[in-house]
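FAQ: What does the model actually see?

It sees only this:
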Amino acid sequence: MLKIEELSDRVKIAIDLYNVAQRRFEEGLDSIREWTNIIKVLNVEIKNIERFIAIAHHNMGVVQAQKNNLDEARKQFLKALEIDDEYAIAYFNLAVVYKKLGDMVKAKEYYSKAKALGYEP
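And it is asked to produce this:
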């Protein structure tokens, strides 16, 4: 049979182990919170990068349209809109390209989308 002193020592060890486990658990929670914040920041950065990529595709579309490479301009505007489906000027410029290509149905469709997003030249 265990003596009271031995039981007391084992209880103290168990309490110490519990306290260590509790601290490590709290440290783990802090790490999870930190990683969660890092993920939030990175998601914002990714959105910003995607926006810049959409702008680059739009700008390439403008250049291609000015060079009268209408099919390539159309592709670039569509790529911009795949990335940012609220990019009003890209809808407008796509409407202009479709008008030049003689597709008035699509021209009106994309002009309407630009207008719905608040863009009017």
